[in-house]
Amino acid sequence: MPSEHEIRLPLEHPLGRASGDELNSLLSAELGRAGLPILLRRSLDTRRRRRPSWLLKVALFARGEQPTPRWQPTNRQAEGPSVVIVGAGPAGSFAALSLLEAGFSPTIIDRGQPVRPRRRSLKALSVDGDLDPESNYCFGEGGAGTFSDGKLYTRSKDRQGVRRLLEMLVAYGAPSRILYDSRPHIGSNQLPRVLTALRTDLEARGVRYEWGARVTEVLQGSDERVSGVGLLDGRFVEGSAVILATGHSARDIYSICQRQGIKMTAKGFALGLRAEHPQAMVDEAQYGARCLDLDLPPAFYQLTAQTTMHGVYSFCMCPGGYIVPASTEPDRLVVNGMSLSRRDSPFANSGVVITVSEDDLAAWAYEQSRPGPSQDPLIGMTFQAHVEGEAYRAGGGQFRAPAQRIDDFVAGRKSQDLPATSYRRGIVPHGFDRIFPATILDSLRQALRRFDERLTGYLSHEGILVAPESRSSAPVRIQRHRESLESTSHPGLYPCGEGAGFAGGIMSAALDGQKVAAAVVRNLS
Ligand SMILES: Cc1cc2nc3c(=O)[nH]c(=O)nc-3n(C[C@H](O)[C@H](O)[C@H](O)COP(=O)(O)OP(=O)(O)OC[C@H]3O[C@@H](n4cnc5c(N)ncnc54)[C@H](O)[C@@H]3O)c2cc1C
Fold first, then answer.
1. Domain locations in the chain?
2. pLDDT, tens digit, for every residue of 302-340?
3. Homologous superfamily of 82-264+477-524
4. Mean pLDDT (the chain, rounded)
5. Is the ipTM of this structure higher than 0.90?
6. CA neighbours closer than 13 Å in the CB half-sphere of residue 229
7. Ligand 1: nearest atom to the Cα of 503
8. Rounded CA gap, 37 and 19, in Å?
9. Which residues line the pocket of ligand 1, CB cutoff 6 A?
């Protein structure tokens, strides 16, 4: 067993920023005489009243001891039972890798395009406001994860599984610092390369990919077991099992599930706004003015507040990032955040969301004379779509977004003008009152006042709120058995990942993909 050591180093120490070979030789110089040092964790301690410093956790292997080798792909070819995977996001992709390594033959079907043509779709959307409903920030190779912020942290308790997953990403070209950085982050510019390397390896080993192929039907054999899927172009793809990993934006899939009697329930989901501030303001609030001349990374924050009706929290904070249009439908607006690996935009953004509860849904359904969540599992999705439609209209079309200065929003007045923003489609002043129910706006207002007590300047006139942040989690859970992980109504169908309501974020979706793949292997062996 290696011994573990914590080391505190001054900010200027080269070990704070080194990676790869340089890191190994610096570590060896620092600790190497006693054995083989391996960096487990590196974080920056920026607590106030202290000079910022690096905190390193190092495992020291005695001479003769060896660390467990890092994960590497095998040469195993696709040859066993065929499994259909719908969705090439983190859940579907890592399910495919696990199935391949276990001797199965996965086929991945995705409505979107591989990374390269998908990039062109994103450009057309960001620059000209032309949305391709099949190829966008949510649909295509790597799913919503590809052009995401690429933050790779998760609340999963499965630390070994998380470590193994990070090693897999490193094996496909991710920087090795994600193995020890306390807040691992890849960035939108590096993730596509990693995903392409993963796909290239899987394809070379016999995994089939179908791009631009939208699933419109789940097929059942005479024994009622799910036996494949039907595509929009009339083709059928058959397999011994079907993994449904279509993400939370595939509204048509939820409707298909409802039509085919696949058991689902409404679930709470996150809804709110995206806040944007000058990064310099966040840096000063977090580091203090005395640190501004030091070479520190753009500062991060995480805020929560309990209000009378809702818990409100900041979500998916992107230091040095951009707000992007994450819509999948032509007349509905959704915003989200991303950043490049160098995080060098002058803006910091984060979601500010509440969890929409069954009570919120029931109240909205009553107002709209619709059946409530106990009768209609898709009521949350309908509500989400309603908010997105109102936001699109409020922005005046072409994916311009309604926005407000944060101080104006809290004071309940409409902004007369708006500051510069990273959102390329443009923002227009709007009071949000037609977009969200008053109870949700009240909770957000209360919470933002509390946020300002924790992060000085949060309510600054330079900060804005952009609507809506509506696709952070699934509004539906597709029911699955605890043990077999098959649909409770349709054996042979495996609801998986974020869209099925079993994950939130890149890492947890990928972990769920691996878990479902293991269940398929168990059930079919
Ligand atoms: C802009 C942005 C930034 C984000 N930043 C982060 C971050 O920094 N860190 C983080 O952890 N998470 C982030 N996320 C969330 C993260 O991307 C998702 O949680 C994750 O991708 C979910 O994985 P998944 O595999 O379950 O589904 P998805 O990634 O949504 O993949 C689903 C796939 O299914 C396909 N599909 C859907 N319907 C059909 C159909 N009918 N037929 C065929 N294929 C279909 C889609 O094309 C898609 O490729 C971000 C998301 C966005 C949009």
1. 3-61, 82-264+477-524, 269-469
2. 999 999 999 999 999 999 999 999 999 999 999 999 999
3. FAD/NAD(P)-binding domain (3.50.50.60)
4. 94
5. yes
6. 30
7. 26
8. 14
9. 86-92, 109-112, 137-140, 143-145, 148-151, 214-215, 245-247, 250, 252-253, 316, 324, 326, 336, 338, 497-499, 503, 505-507, 509
